Amino acid sequence: MRTAEAAAQPREPIQIKLRGKLSGVPEIEGISWDTRPVTLGKSVSNAEHTAALKAALKDAVVAKVFYKTRVGKQITMADGSGVSDEAAADEAKVDKGELWDLVRPLEGSCELELLDFDDEQGRAVFWHSSAHVLGECLECGYGCHLTVGPPIATGFFYDAYMGERAVHDEMRRDLEAKANQVCTVKQAGQQQPGQAFERLVISKQEALELFAANPFKMAMISAKIPDGAFTTAYRCGPMVDLCMGPHIPNTRAIQGFAVTSCSQANFGGDVNNDSLQRVYGVSFPTKQRLEQHLAYLEEAKANDHRVRGQEQQLFFFHPLSPGSAFWEPAGARIYNTLMEFIRTEYRARGYQEVITPNMFQIELWKRSGHWQHYAENMFSFTDGEEHLDGASGEGKTAEEVQRAKDHSTYALKPMNCPGHCLIFAHRDRSYRELPYRMADFGVLHRKELTGALSGLTRVRRFQQDDAHIFCTAAQIKDEVRGALEFMKKVYDTFGMTYRLERSTRPAKASGLDTAEGVALWDLAEAQLAEAMDAFQGAGTWKDNPGDGAFYGPKIDIKVYDAHQRVHQCATIQLDFQNPLRFDLHYASDKQTIEKPVMIHRAMLGSLERMIAILTEHFRGRWPFWLAPRQLVVVPMLAGAEADNTAATAYAARVAAQLAEFFVDVPHSGNNNHNDAIKRAFEQGTKFVLCVGPSEVAKGTVSVEGRQPAGSKDKAPLHYGTCTVDDAKAWFRRLRDSKVLDENVASVEPPAFVKVAYGKKKEAGTEPAGKRAQDHIAPPPAQHAPPAKQAARAAVVAAGTYQVAGEVFPTSVPKLLGQSFASVEDFVRHLSA
Question: Which candidate in 104, 132, 445, 468 is catalytic?
Fold first, then answer.
């Protein structure tokens, strides 16, 4: 609001209730149009609460306000920034809270939450403010015309018209230096560094006058702001820009700023419009976090699943079938292993797998609603047959002609749910069959634009671990809880963490026009909350008001990989619409006919996308159970002139004995077994089994393993020599336990590697870098029984070795370099 009008607004007592981490702070009294989020700490008398509030305000980026009442005159603002969400108006009836500048006066009684950089919305505001800093540097430093500068998932960008000029590396470095100066250098006459953001309310006419020199801003103002309406702009230092805000209070909050790249764009996204320079950047509250992020970006380039996929010969794409991966044998092994992992869980959890057609007449998709809302993303075609009597269909009604066209038009399925509805509707159902858990790995196709295709993360042909549960309304809670437990098992196995969010009814939710429909939504949302509380505990999940699907509420599951990137893979969605559209019903225990509730759920989601995520999550170092090359048998060849027939034949026999695993025997033309071993580990192999003359004579294998992640030692770890049967038994335990690399020591090893699991406590008394005991950690202490934890502590304190459950003093390091036929032999030497 304009300064004069804001000053004239009534000052009345208001109540502010804090949310989130500060929910324990008592309600705060304030004054409308005077109290600001940034000053709330002055209104709290309790010392503990004051300290908590001040600490939260120190890290806060923006406030999120849920108004109960508003005082004084309200002015609706038109968005002339060019970066608004056009769908926001559809959800106006859903109170998702209002992001609010920390320095902007509150207008009434409200609930308020402080968001910091680690909150998704807080980070978007931080990056939006950083885009304004970049815009200032572009405009003031290079005299260009600014267009739009929004936050994006990976930072922000600003589009600027620079005529024939293009941003080059020297300009990029200059922009970065200028931006850091804006944020961290104290200007003349300032007591502190940085520039404050100031919100301005202006009329359309004032906006046209203010931006008269910028034809792009003039076009946006004319197109987006109605005559007589008001909009907002923000001043930051010398720059004023159209913007709805909100923003951080001051640029000094930005302590790490980098200009990362640039590209070409077109105004309004239209190739017929002027060409613009799009300059990308990223920023953080500390320089350290920026440096960590930039280091991660460098690692990510080398770790890209498209690069790893080529290195390990997992998959490739061909221009004759864009968006559809060709899976090589190693990649197909991962694909099938993941499917078998899920199938094993299906069998344990009462799912029944079905197979459904790949294509359907569009009548099905019209009934499900996909044709009306999703047709442009579906591959469709006609069968070329005539479905009308007569060549032209003369004498037929328009409805009959359309039905004939529908019968001759097919679409490849982009999802499985309509087909599963047909299976449920195929015969009469009883309440005794519910819940009915139906699973499907069917091939799906979606017509993604060619320019949107990206490795395995955006494809046209894919499979997913799709399942639908048909249940009664009373069974929702238990089925959702079961799906959450399923999800936990999957992502614990991958070593990933997750966060749960409940998305509730949108403004246009179906069924809200009847009391029964509202009651069903109420029941479903309540049961989701109860299931999440029972699964994870109250207060551990977040609500997303209005973000549910039109056909039912859902649980969004945000999964975090080893790089702390967030992925949306698993999903649990309730559906009230498909049972209505397909007239699904069952006979209840009261002999009435009822509609089931349909639950859509996936654990992995698209297998293609999940393999891309796992490739980068594991950095190509696959755990044994999922490795595409679990074992490689390498014959230790004596040279091209020697007779290597025995070693080569023995290697083949060993591979045959281990055929239950993914085992390869390299075919090397240069007889260099060192190259073969190196290549095996580069391709993600977990163990290499070396066989030379000694192993051939004794019927054994020498087990070598890859170094742990981060190790600078290039030599393989030597686990020991053993019979093939002993090795097979251990490999089975590793595979079946699905243990991750860092927890491999928790799997009981056979005798030949038991010594390697001992941990020496005195440094410098045994060889390092070649033996597995230097790198394999013992089972995590927090998972050991109290008695074993105490024993471990005693061993460490006494400076002893612990081998095979026995404790021995450190006075025997001289024996470590010797070889023993068995652990028992080793123990006899120690006892002597």
Answer: 468
Contact residues for 520 (Cβ-Cβ < 8 A; gap 6+):
473, 511, 576
Does residue 466 carry a catalytic annotation?
yes
Q: Is 788 a catalytic residue?
A: no
Predicted model pTM: 0.76
Tell me the helix, strand and coil percentages in the chain, rounded to 5: 40, 25, 35
Q: Assess whether the previous peptide bond of 26 is cis (omega < 30° from 0).
A: no
Residues in the chain: 832
Q: Could you tell me which of 370, 503, 377, 369 has the C-alpha nearest to residue 91? A: 503
Catalytic residue among 446, 460, 617, 686: 446
67-76, 408-417, 566-575: which has the minimum mean pLDDT? 67-76
Catalytic residue among 255, 277, 312, 464: 464
Among residues 137, 144, 417, 690, which one is catalytic?
A: 417
Q: Which of 600, 617, 621, 706 is catalytic?
A: 600
Maximum distance among all alpha carbons in the chain? 106
- Per-residue pLDDT of 459-485, as tens digits, reads 999 999 999 999 999 999 999 999 999
Q: Is 42 a catalytic residue?
A: no
d(CA 461, CA 389): 37
Express each pLDDT in 82-93 by its tens digit: 665 444 444 445
Distance CA 168, CA 787 (A): 64
Q: pLDDT of 557-616, one tens digit each?
A: 999 888 888 888 999 999 988 999 999 999 999 999 999 999 999 999 999 999 999 999
Q: What are the Cα distances from residue 763, in Å, to 137, 504, 790?
A: 55, 58, 22
Residue of 466, 556, 575, 664 marked catalytic: 466
CA distances from 447 to 269, 319, 374, 383, 488 (A): 21, 15, 10, 19, 32
Would you call 417 a catalytic residue per the annotation?
yes
Which among 743, 732, 725 has a CA at the least distance from the CA of 623? 743
Phi and psi of 432, rounded to 5°? -65, -20
The question of whether 116 is a catalytic residue gets the answer no
